[in-house]
Each structure stands twice: as structure tokens, then as C-alpha cells.
Amino acid sequence: MSGSTKQTPSVVTSFAPNPLTTTFTRPDDCSGIYRSGFLMMVDVSKTCMPSGFKTDAYFSPGYVCPAGYVSACHDNTGVASLTTVTCCPTVNDPSIRLGCVTTSTLSSIWSTLFCTWIAPKDSNFYVPLTTVANGVTTTQSVGLQAPGGLNAFGVRMVYQSSDMVTATTTTAKTTASTTDTSSGGSSTSNPSQSAGEPGGLSTGAKVAIGVVIPVVALAAIIGVFLWWRRRKHHYQPQSQTEPKPVHQAPNELHGTHVNELA
């Protein structure tokens, strides 16, 4: 049995490319438990699987388990650059968590059932079992006890180290491009911003203009005020030496007018 386990990586490399490139979300009604023959199964419907799924094949390359599945195990035995991942489905009961089946037990009708869950030994563990007969669907509570349990196909993926490097580089470039565009790092990445600014002024130039203009205006006001004061002082002595004829003339006229009446 150990020999067949060592040969597993070489079998993986013989699979045709079948990338898991699209986001797949398992439908809500796929978390139910059904009976298939004498086995109790999860994810038996094709609609519960990503497009291109085959029970005896891997998605290659595949990096992330689809929504509704969890990463149950991974292995890179045999070829260090290759990693296989088995994703097992989730069910409505959070206390039930399917895990990977031991490779040596994958035989007969269980040969393609890569996920399993074994019920507790001490007492029955009740699960809702759904059956479909003559177009009628019924659900009833059924007790399970070890070695009984649940089985599932699971989703298997394989990738090599170069696939992860490519995926990481692509993600980094996408993130950098998004960041550069949102921050307006260059005029070419955000032309609308530079086109709307007069003269293409930088932030530093805008700050300098905002500081200089108020200072110049204040200096002009002070200059006008000083000029006005100098002019006032220049004409003030002349006004004090004048005899002020405007005020004396009315007095003389008034006095002459009174004398004539007398």
C-alpha cells in the first residue's frame, strides 16, 4: 500500500489541466445529508460541485477551496514542488466536520469518497436524513454511531510552487496598480486630476502660493498706511500757520453789520 501512496504525485502530473479559475459558491441546499445505497452522503448532486468536477480528477491548478468547502488536508509527498489539497464540504450542524480519508482505505465503493466523518462511539448522534422517493422529498432524524458516519466526494486540487509565485506576482501587480490609481501617483495614471489643475501645479507650489499671497497683501496695506501718515505729517505745519480766513471773514461781516445798525 505504501508503494501506491508514493506513486500518487506522478499520477497527479498526468492529469490534464483543469484550472479552478472561477469563483464557485455551493448552493444552500447542498449542505443536506442524503442516502445513496447504504451510504449516507453529502454533496451528491452535480450542482453542488464546481464546473469541470470529476470524482477521480484534480482541479489543476487550484489554490483556494470553493465557498461551502474547507481545506481538510494537503500533501506534497513524492514531489516537493507539487501540493495536493482536499476540500471537504460543510453541513448545517457545526459539530460535524468532515476530514480526509486515509489513502489506504480508498477502495471499492469508497474509492472516490475522499471526505468522511465518523460518529461518536458512546451514543447515537442524530442527523437529519433527506430521502427522495417517487418525486416526494422527506426528512427524518436518524441516529448514527461509530463506525457509522457520513461520506463525501470532496474537491481535490493540485498546484506547483511556480503557480503560487505567478498568482502572488499577479496579485501584487493588481494591488499596486489599484493603489497607484487611487492615490494619483502620476499624471498618466490619473490624467483627469492634472488636467483640471492650472499649470499642473504641485502640492508644494500650491502651499507656497497660499502663504505668499496673504503676506504680499498685508505688506501692501502697511505700505499704503505708512504713505498716508507721511503725507499727513508733511501738510500739517502749513495748515497751522495760515490765518484761517474762512472763520475770520464771517466775524468781520457780522461786526460791520452791527455797527451800521447802531
Automatic annotation (TrEMBL):
Biased composition (Low complexity): 171-196
This protein's record includes keyword Membrane: yes
Membrane recorded as keyword: yes
Transmembrane segments: 207-228
Protein's recorded name: Uncharacterized protein
Superkingdom to which the source organism belongs: Eukaryota
Listed InterPro entries: Immunoregulatory_rcpt-like (IPR051694)
Keywords for the protein's UniProt record, in alphabetical order: Membrane, Transmembrane, Transmembrane helix
Major localisation: membrane
Membrane topology: Single-pass membrane protein
GO CC field: cell periphery; membrane
Region annotation (Disordered) ranges: 171-200, 235-262
Cellular compartments annotated: Membrane
